[in-house]
Amino acid sequence: MHIAEGVLSPAQCAVWYAAAAPFVIHGGYRVVKEVKEHPENKLLLATAGAFTFVLSAIKLPSVTGSSSHPTGTGVGAALFKPPVMAFLGMIVLIFQALLLAHGGISTLGANTFSMGIAGPWAGYAFYKLTKKCHGPDALAIFLCMVFADFITYVVTSFQLAFAFPDPTGGFWGAVGKFLTIFAWTQIPLAIAEGLLGILLFRFLAKVAAPQLQQLGVLARTPEVSHA
């Protein structure tokens, strides 16, 4: 999901910047609002950003000669809803591009769209659907993490297919090839990330239960009335 510097044409970079910009601006507004209205959630916001930074900085080789990465964006999507992750995801990608040469500034719009927007929204959709169907919290978190990760790579495959259509199969032929390249490592990675997400939320439930209840991630414990 980290498309490198110079891979996309200037026109394609501009298109993805334009597509990501409204989400990032709205996400920045939501972050500022969250900090002002609920300053007690600052540490959870920092945790969501740090988790995304650490996991998405891990570079794992693919059996097809490419590389894959976890994303970590499902945590912030479940805690603070997807708009916040558009802003946090962009900040993470800027630091990775400047400090780790991971991704690029010209491709920042494309990378933000796939990792900070499409992935979190997909994960959050499965999270809410599971909650609506009264599924267990662990399953909701697991699916949120899995699909936030995997859909990021699906979108990246489409982005690369737009840039490099297959000579014979055209756009859809290129989509199939890029999806195949990523799928070998990304499916097990997404599942592993889902399991890690369950462990993280169990830890947060112990150390930050009031904040999780205020955010609606944990059900509020009924107060016991005393006679």
Automatic annotation (TrEMBL):
A GO cellular-component term linked to this record: ATP-binding cassette (ABC) transporter complex
Subcellular location: Cell inner membrane; Cell membrane
The organism's place on the tree of life at top rank: Bacteria
Record keywords, A-Z: Cell membrane, Cobalamin biosynthesis, Cobalt, Cobalt transport, Ion transport, Membrane, Transmembrane, Transmembrane helix, Transport
Presence of keyword DNA-binding: no
GO molecular function annotations of the record: cobalt ion transmembrane transporter activity
A biological-process GO annotation: cobalamin biosynthetic process
Pathway: Cofactor biosynthesis; adenosylcobalamin biosynthesis
Main location: membrane
Pfam family, one: CbiM
The keyword Ion transport appears for this protein: yes
UniProt topology in membrane: Multi-pass membrane protein
Membrane-spanning intervals of the chain: 14-32, 44-64, 84-105, 138-161, 181-205
Family: Belongs to the CbiM family.
Function: Part of the energy-coupling factor (ECF) transporter complex CbiMNOQ involved in cobalt import.
Subunit structure as annotated in this protein's UniProt entry: Forms an energy-coupling factor (ECF) transporter complex composed of an ATP-binding protein (A component, CbiO), a transmembrane protein (T component, CbiQ) and 2 possible substrate-capture proteins (S components, CbiM and CbiN) of unknown stoichimetry.
Protein name: Cobalt transport protein CbiM
Organism: Cutibacterium avidum ATCC 25577
